[in-house]
Task: structure prediction
Amino acid sequence: MAGRVVVRWRLLLRDDTGMVSVEAAYAMAAIAAFLLIGVGGVAGVAAQIQCTDAAREVARLTAAGDESARRVGAAVAPSGAEIEVGGEGDEVVVEVSAGVPLLPMLTVSARAVAAREPTAGESTAGESTAGESTAGD
Result:
């Protein structure tokens, strides 16, 4: 009887049925991980493009003096994006940053710079003001 148990035990140790199932499970997990990373990468690129578009629009509208710049930027930017507007003098600097939905540890951002447009009553260098003549008399 003991001899039969030993023989049967040795047969069980050499039996590799079920190994294909384990290998297939590992392969499916690897495929799922690569698919998640791939789709996350595409989502990251899309978020980067949206941040760039939003930063450009906010900088352009802010430079023109439009009060709806942040609202327009929030509509263009990915959901949950942060929009920071700053700048000095005749320059507007906008930075938009957002997280990537499928890759929570990844944050994308974009920065845009625009020159402020002159407002009514201001004149730029080289322009003549009302009442001045630039032509020779």
